[in-house]
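Go through this:
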Amino acid sequence: MTLNELEALPKEILTCADVAPILMANPATIHGQAVERPELLGFPVIVAGRRVKIPKAAFLRFMRGEVSG
């Protein structure tokens, strides 16, 4: 999946499996990092129980190198 394809997905919240191909990483690795040390990912995540949710807009800004506030 490319960044443009990810952007075209009709959802505002992404999963670790959605972003893994973009980051060239294993979804389980991203999930583990999100649970253990989310601040090291560089993009915001929402951890709810065992689920990890990634706001699409924030992830796209991160991947484009845009800095917020």
Summary: Residues 3-63 form one domain.
